[in-house]
Amino acid sequence: MTRKRFNLIWTTVLITLIALFFLFPLVWMITSSMKSEAEIYKNMTSWKAFLPSANINEWFGAYAQLFKRFPIMHYILNSVTYALCLTAGSLVINGLAGYGFAKFKFTGNKILFSILIAMMVIPGATLIIQQFQIAKNMGLLNTILAVVLPGMASPFYIYMFKNAFEAIPESVSEAAAMEGAGSFRIFWNILLPMAKPTIATVGTLAFIGSWNDYVWPLMVLNDSSQFPLQVAITNVNVTQPVYMNQVMAILTISTIPLVLVYIFAQKYLVQGLGSAGNGDK
Amino acid sequence: MVQIDLEHVYKKYEKAKDYSVTDFNLHINDEEFIVFVGPSGCGKSTTLRMIAGLEDISKGDLKIGGKRMNDLPAKDRDIAMVFQNYALYPHMSVYDNMAFGLKIRKTPKDVIDKKIKNAAKVLGLTEYLKRKPADLSGGQRQRVALGRAIVRDAPIFLMDEPLSNLDAKLRVSMRAEIAKIHHQLKTTTIYVTHDQVEAMTLADRIVIMKDGKIQQVGTPQEVYRHPVNVFVGSFIGSPAMNFCRVHLNGDHVVSDDGSMNFLLPEGRLKKLRQQGYQGKELVMGIRPEDIHAEQMFMETFPEDIATAEVTVSELLGAETQLYTNIGNNEVVCKVDSRDYVKPGVKVKLGFDMNKAHFFDPATEMTLD
């Protein structure tokens, strides 16, 4: 066996093992949602834990029960609304900020950007109390704005947009200016469409971030009808009686959009994050 | 009617020690084709960008049609510009690229359509209108950039080395195309290039620049025939003018090593003497085509001959370029292809002293 072939085999084995390691909780979650409560506990110690119920009629029983007991569609709608608003806002705000840093010379440009980058090292959790105070003082609590606004601006996304815009030759925006386009039109009609890979990356990351967020919506929302799916999971998990197959069902539901996003936007996620340092597209 | 006036224009970049453009004065007439030419870093592009409004003017006035434009942003100057790297919008089709400026000006759709179709016809782009710039060749892209400028009907065209990114053959054909377009539209055009052939073939007037200063402004013939200083003489013309240091001894000019000793015609001698150069050092410049190898010439001017050793000879078809050493001086001459000789051979060359140029060795300014 040649060395090259040996390398190929053992990297394949290793990658498969790692993939299995990450996949098995996911598989267990999905199969557990597709069997009865009793079966979950019965199969817990056998390989059958990774198989759905033998009885096909039981596969979606937990889901039916779940939808009957909780307004799941409502939670999903909330989550989608929050995620879409945050994503759209994030693209506009961070895009504009990145445009400013990349294409305008103003006093303090570099210092301001350094401060922005330095802020990336501050853990979000340390800011959460202050953020809550601000949201409260602004009278935003229990509104969609409270959920969506604080997450929109992000130093990392600004950094990504700045890199993307800097990679576009100056002459393109100059040509647009010569044709009579103002700063905003240059941004909106010329530069933003040219930064599509970055839009895809930032959009995907922002969507995932909002979809997965748990602590912040829990803090700013009191009314359970406004809860996003992640917060609702806690509801399902603590509302007696707690059924493990229903918990697994709602977890599965909450995972589906993320899996879809990863499948369709994986290219941009890898591309965008990989090139964040050099602006190459 | 558009006239452009640059009055005592200076440009200094932030943190730069020296001015990039110094005391630039130029009046550009309506419908004129002006070419800024000079080596890289001479300030020609900077000047163009100041006219465009892409760079601030540090000092002085820019007037277009008599109105001061210094503080007007680029987007409001109504000037069309073609960039070296085309600067097309890659996400838009050729059609949309050309329509962009017109849409901003809220031109009616049918007018836009008509203008673009006309421009596409002139530029041979009709079948490419739906394509994206990435699917076009370099020449086609530059044609789109030209089209984008044409459809605007802007009173002024600025072109910043528009042909530099094209291959040699394409450059020649695009050069002709630009000349044709200017002939048709008669738009006042300022064209920046470092290629003196482009400058000579396109310009109504050439502005030769060096180190941020204008060296000479004139028609191609003027700057070629009457260069005001050594730099202009050396920059315009290919191969470049030959220079050597000579002394005016009696009625002859003699090179330092004595290898060149030429009789000066009456008129030229008189002029140099009047300026007090008798017995003094001069810089003599002579163009390669004013050095002859034909027997006829040597018989007519027997006192203007030097012996040269050929180091390189290039047969270009109709003519031959000989790179020679005369004493310590390197001299290039352009002779008839029948006068081709192999390297290493010694030949006699006749210098047409009526066409020689003389410059002051200290100021390098012309003495003609």
What brief labels describe this structure?
heterodimer; A: MetI-like fold; 75% helix; globular; B: 368 residues; alpha+beta; OB fold (Dihydrolipoamide Acetyltransferase, E2P); 2 domains; six-stranded mixed β-sheet; five-stranded antiparallel β-sheet; 10 helices; 20 strands
How would you characterize this protein structure?
The complex is a heterodimer of chains A (281) and B (368). Chain A is an all-alpha fold and 281 residues long. Chain A has helices spanning 3-33, 37-43, 61-69, 72-103, 109-118, 124-137, 144-152, 155-167, 170-178, 183-194, 196-212, 215-220, 229-238, 244-274. Chain A has 2 domains: 3-59, no CATH class; 70-275, MetI-like (MetI-like fold). Chain A starts with a helix and ends in a 7-residue tail after the last helix. Mean pLDDT of chain A is 85; it is low at 276-281. Chain B folds into 2 domains: 4-235, P-loop containing nucleotide triphosphate hydrolases (Rossmann fold, 3-Layer(aba) Sandwich), CATH 3.40.50; 242-359, OB fold (Dihydrolipoamide Acetyltransferase, E2P). Chain B contains 10 helices and 20 strands. In chain B, the strands form 4 sheets. Chain B has a 6-stranded mixed beta sheet, with helices on both faces. In chain B, strands 13-12-11-14-20 form a 5-stranded antiparallel beta sheet. Chain B has a 5-stranded antiparallel beta sheet with strand order 15-19-16-17-18, with no helix packed on it. In chain B, β9 (205-210) and β10 form a beta hairpin. The radius of gyration of chain B is 25 Å and the shape is elongated. The model of chain B has no long low-confidence stretch (mean pLDDT 91).
